[in-house]
């Protein structure tokens, strides 16, 4: 089955220069001596914000400036159709950017920045599902001072095809559902999931075992898991195995560190998170692919915190952080791996343990050669429902990262792990549904 069409709109290469003659009196904020940021708006999408670097008037962009993404918008086929319909009846579709001096944020509900100017970039998305299109790349004049001089704002706006495979769980992960591939109105089964419990030291929960694991593989598990005794309640031993349609296991998500309430509280804390190991088959055994940690954030927001890192093939190499953020425990949200974007208003802190050439963009946005990681740009996203809500995760995976069944399966297993982490991090004063409790827990 073919992938679903998606289009990625990126805004980057931002810079601002203001003529010296236009510098106002000391009492007025000036971009050269104060922070400058912008708000980027595309109809029907959340507003995104980004810092705008100030450069000297005589400088030519980029002139040594880092070229990075400022905002990213991901459009599905339905988004494209809706925006096209709106543009027919409401004029041309435009990207609107408002620039401000001062610090970001609000005070008593009032924006703290001072409006410097606005720019509008028309977008014609016809044909962008199949070929890239640059809508603007260069300088735009912004406002005028008393002497008629204009500030200059630099940006690049580009749309490019980003096809994705879309998968949908047919039920909650703990209920061992089927997983369908989705394309438009077509639903085709591609995987089955098996949820279960593993006892200490026995993670090998699957319907068709691979050959006996090597001691090296068990060494991986012991180094990532935690076998130390922990006081009080704990949620442990959960695992979910993804099988292809022939019944062969193609990915596993195994809880290797129990989710335990910290002393004196009823929550899993950031200082003592639970963790999952995501494994895929290779050389006749299971090999670690990634590690997911999750915890419950404190404070009024009451969010699920998470951190996902890729495990290099090289023994002893440090994990590469691909995603670290939070999700609302009440509303849920999206778990996203997008290296270099600023989607949803904040950048993904990609690869904190990698060398200085870690990606902050791709292609002509300054993506450098990064030998430690095969992933770049958008990698995957998975929907996560809030506590107490029926969860049937939807998973999107970039086509460029799927070369075989196992490639897709590890992302499905990862999405199941982040979804189950929402339950694993529930306050220990709240009882879990029966599918997540072992028989001896129910009897106790």
UniProtKB/TrEMBL annotation:
Top-level taxon: Eukaryota
One protein family per Pfam: DUF1005
Region (Disordered): 206-236
Composition bias type Basic and acidic residues, residue spans: 226-236
PANTHER family: OS07G0133500 PROTEIN (PTHR31317:SF3), OS08G0163500 PROTEIN (PTHR31317)
Protein name per the record: Formin-like protein 18
Organism, scientific name: Tripterygium wilfordii
């Amino acid at each position: 089955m073919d992938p679903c069409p998606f289009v990625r709109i990126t805004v980057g290469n931002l810079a601002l220069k203001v003529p010296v003659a236009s510098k106002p009196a000391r009492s007025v904020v000036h971009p050269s001596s104060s922070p400058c940021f912008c708000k980027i708006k595309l109809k029907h999408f959340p507003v995104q914000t980004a810092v705008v670097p100030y450069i000297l008037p005589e400088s030519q962009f980029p002139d040594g400036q880092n070229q990075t993404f400022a905002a990213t918008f991901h459009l599905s086929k339905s988004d494209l159709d809706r925006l096209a319909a709106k543009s027919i009846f409401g004029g041309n579709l435009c990207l609107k950017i408002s620039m401000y001096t001062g610090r970001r944020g609000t005070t008593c509900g009032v924006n703290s920045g001072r409006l410097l100017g606005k720019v509008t970039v028309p977008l014609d998305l016809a044909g962008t599902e199949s070929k890239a299109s640059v809508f603007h790349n260069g300088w735009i004049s912004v406002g005028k001072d008393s002497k008629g001089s204009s500030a200059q704002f630099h940006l690049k706006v580009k749309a490019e095809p980003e096809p994705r495979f879309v998968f949908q769980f047919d039920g909650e992960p703990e209920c061992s559902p089927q997983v369908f591939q989705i394309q438009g109105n077509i639903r085709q089964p591609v995987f089955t999931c098996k949820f279960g419990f593993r006892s200490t030291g026995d993670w090998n929960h699957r319907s068709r075992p691979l050959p006996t694991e090597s001691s090296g593989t068990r060494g991986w598990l012991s180094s990532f898991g935690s076998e130390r005794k922990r006081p009080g309640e704990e949620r442990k031993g959960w695992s979910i195995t993804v099988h292809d349609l022939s019944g062969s296991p193609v990915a596993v998500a195994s809880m290797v560190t129990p989710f335990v309430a910290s002393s004196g509280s009823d929550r899993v804390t950031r200082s003592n998170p639970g963790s999952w190991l995501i494994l895929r088959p290779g050389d006749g055994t299971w090999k670690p692919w990634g590690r997911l940690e999750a915890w419950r954030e404190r404070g009024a927001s009451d969010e699920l915190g998470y951190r996902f890192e890729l495990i290099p093939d090289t023994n002893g190499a440090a994990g590469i952080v691909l995603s670290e953020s939070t999700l609302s425990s009440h509303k849920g949200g999206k778990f996203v791996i997008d290296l270099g974007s600023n989607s949803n208003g904040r950048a993904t802190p990609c690869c904190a343990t990698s060398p200085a050439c870690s990606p902050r963009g791709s292609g002509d946005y300054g993506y450098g050669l990064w030998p430690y990681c095969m992933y770049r740009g958008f990698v995957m996203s998975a929907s996560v429902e809030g506590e107490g809500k029926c969860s049937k995760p939807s998973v999107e995976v970039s086509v460029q990262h799927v070369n075989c069944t196992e490639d897709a399966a590890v992302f499905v297993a990862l999405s199941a792990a982040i979804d189950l982490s929402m339950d694993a991090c529930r306050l220990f004063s709240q009882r879990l549904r029966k599918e997540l409790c072992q028989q001896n827990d129910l009897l106790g």
